[in-house]
């Protein structure tokens, strides 16, 4: 098992590998993102982590980038190169895939994003 030196890491990418995201290609997205990061020579600067469900199943496959707090939806393997070039190399989030951005008072969703439900309003079983 590896213990990575994260001292040069600039971005932490969380790639959903929960049930809905896996059905929408989560494994393939994970592989494609990691390959694009490696091909761009960014392995020391961009760290990836597979996660379980992130709670936005309708947006599958979900990818989240920190420290910016950018949430991406409907990510496909074909989006990997664009995401790496634009977000990690050029510092510009890919607006067409973005659903949320973290700001001072919390997450702000993009105009077209479904609002979802608050956890406190979820029906009790």
Automatic annotation (TrEMBL):
Coiled coil: none annotated. This is Ferredoxin. Keywords: Iron, Iron-sulfur, Metal-binding. GO terms for molecular function: iron-sulfur cluster binding; metal ion binding.
């Amino acid at each position: 098992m590896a213990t990575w030196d994260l001292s040069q890491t600039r971005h932490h990418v969380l790639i959903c590998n929960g049930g809905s995201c896996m059905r929408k290609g989560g494994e393939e997205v994970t592989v494609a993102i990691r390959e694009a990061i490696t091909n761009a020579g960014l392995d020391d600067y961009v760290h990836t982590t597979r996660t379980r469900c992130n709670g936005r199943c309708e947006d599958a496959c979900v990818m989240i980038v920190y420290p910016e707090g950018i949430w991406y939806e409907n990510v496909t393997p074909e989006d990997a190169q664009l995401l790496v070039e634009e977000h990690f190399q050029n510092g510009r989030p890919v607006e067409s895939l973005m659903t949320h951005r973290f700001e001072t008072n919390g997450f702000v969703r993009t105009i077209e994003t479904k609002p979802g439900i608050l956890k406190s309003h979820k029906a009790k079983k």
